[in-house]
Amino acid sequence: MDSDVLIDWYRETARDLPWRRPGVTAWQILMSEIMLQQTPVVRVEPIWREWVARWPVPSAMAAAAPGEVLRAWGKLGYPRRALRLHECARVLATEHGDEVPDDVDVLLGLPGIGAYTARAVACFAYGQRVPVVDTNVRRVVARAVHGRAEAGNPSSRDLAETEALLPIRIDRAATFSAALMELGATVCTARTPSCDGCPLPSCAWVTAGRPVSEVVRRVQKYEGTDRQARGRLLDVLRAASGPVEQVALDLAWTHDPGQRTRALDSLLVDGLIEQTPNGLFALAGEG
């Protein structure tokens, strides 16, 4: 894969995303990476801007109640991410001088920080030469290098293969990683790749005649799921100015009382909500 071509393309055509601009801190990049997991850029950007203004450093978020952070998370989905980020902010404020570490192994020890996020922060915030592998990167490598339509299940080979593609020069490696992700997000997309707009001079998948994927895609439904039920219950608590009675939650999900009970229990177990001594319900830290 020609890294020079890809880097030149990225510098000319990359989306102007706010977390890519000069002056953005490692903490602000960390927030963006957590928000962008399984959530489109268009939904993340306005919330991220609000959070940067509201909690510009970890200690600012750490001083807020967990429920306040959950309320600000809004409709980004998977709200456990918000709770874990709040926990991470507390650790950064108390144990790391209000700074995000630049070492991958140290980052992995923080609450809610997995392998991808740790490497993304080290790469994009600190310019380190580390492979950053997400779904888009795996798809580009599968097509351009191996001639497969899909990457298949993640494996331990993904990091090594991606690292082998990185430019030797550290100052170009981070840009290449961003370019690889951008290519997968905007051109080499899963369903309708724009091969005519691809900057790569060669692609094994195109050369092979763009063979059809053997992977059977399962459409994940949302309507009527436990996840939707959890979201409805959280909506009630986010909109409330204080703890609410059980009946308010009952009215938020009426067609399956058993599912509602299951969703409520899971929210309590996850620590997203709490029950007060007098039986009311509230967001975490607001009971």
3D structure, described in words:
There is one protein chain. The protein has 287 residues and is an all-alpha fold. It contains 15 helices and two strands. It has a two-stranded antiparallel sheet. Strand 1 and strand 2 form a beta hairpin. The longest helix has 17 residues. The radius of gyration is 21 Å and the shape is globular. It starts with a helix and ends with a strand. The model has no long low-confidence stretch (mean pLDDT 92).
Describe the structure concisely.
By secondary structure, this protein is mainly α.
Shape: globular
Corresponding CATH superfamily of the largest domain: Hypothetical protein, domain 2
CATH topology of the largest domain: Endonuclease III, domain 1
Q: Give, in order, the helices and strands.
A: HHHHHHHHHHHHHHHEE
- Fraction of residues in helices? 40-55%
Q: What is the CATH first-level class name of the largest domain?
A: Mainly Alpha
Distance between the terminal alpha carbons, to the nearest Å?
A: 55 Å
Strand arrangement across the biggest beta sheet: 1-2
Just name the CATH architecture of the largest domain: Orthogonal Bundle
Strand tally: 2
Give me the Rg, rounded: 21 Å
Determine the number of helices (DSSP H or I, runs of at least 4 residues). 15
Strand content: under 5%
Major sheet attributes: 2 strands, antiparallel
Number of domains: 3
Instruction: Report the structural category.
Output: mainly alpha
Regions with little confidence, pLDDT below 50 for 5+ residues: none
Instruction: Provide the residue-averaged pLDDT.
Output: 92
